[in-house]
Amino acid sequence: MSLSFLLASAKAAITGGAVTLAVSVLAAPSYAASLVPVDLELWLGVDVSGSISPSEFNLQKNGYANAFNSSALQNVIASSTNGVAVGYGYWSSSNQQNVAVNWTLLKTAQDVTNFAAAIAATTRPFNGSTAVGAAIDFGVNQILTNAFEGAQKTIDISGDGTNNSGRQPALARNAAAAQGITINGLAIGSQSFETYYKNNVITADGFVIRTPDLLGFEAAIKQKLTREIGDGIVVPPGPVSTPEPVSGLALGIAGIGLMAFRKRGERGQSPAN
User: Fold this and answer.
1) Whether residue 9 sits in one domain with residue 21
2) Which residues contact 28 (CB under 8 A, 6 or more apart)?
3) What are the φ/ψ torsions at residue 244 (nearest 5 degrees)?
4) Beta-bridge mates of residue 77
5) Mean pLDDT rounded to a whole number for the chain
6) 64 by DSSP, 3-state: which?
7) What are the pLDDT digits (tens) for 8-52?
8) Spatial distance between the Cα atoms of 33 and 53, rounded to a whole number of angstroms
9) Are residues 80 and 105 in the same domain?
10) Which of 30, 50, 76, 188 is deepest in the core (most CB within 10 A)?
């Protein structure tokens, strides 16, 4: 039995209460007990299929890095209760997915800046076909086997083409939804491609943002990350204000005033006929 299977089984049992996985959970009790609670687990899957040119790859990579370097996104993450766990990787053909930046807990602005630098340092690993379904399956495995336990779990798929290799994305999407995982999408292309993502990629509780081309990628991914992280975090409650206690003297004065007001009203009434 592989370690990844044990990790996935333990997390699935914790999040879904699956009784059928009890044996596997017993085999990995230390893992189940050591999961780090976070507001959000976020897997970022980035398309590097053959339709993505070298310059477009850099636009994507730098777009993600610059988004995480933005003060707006850093402020959102810093306002979370337990932080956000993020992993970043590339995908192409059905057997081509990787973890380019390992899962990282982001809580402070410095955490986010370091994560952005790690993205900027990545290189392109693939240049194959477009296996959207396999990319989703890989993201699900990443969510289920990392060292964090998020109150919310999200996969972010960005791409510029429809599935032409491996499992159909709708089947992978449905499997992700069954695990309580949300899928959001960033569609690069025409309006019809946005419709394809809505129908085949994102979950019922997810959303898709479209950019007509990769020149608008950075603005689109900044908007998308700010929205999905902002929706996923839990903001710590502020201090609760307690009303000042009312003294007995104040109550007494108020009572005397009320009685005087009532007596004046009675004196002003006309006698009954």
Assistant:
1) yes
2) 6, 7, 9, 10
3) -65, 135
4) none
5) 83
6) helix
7) 555 654 444 433 333 333 344 455 568 999 999 999 999 999 999
8) 44
9) yes
10) 188
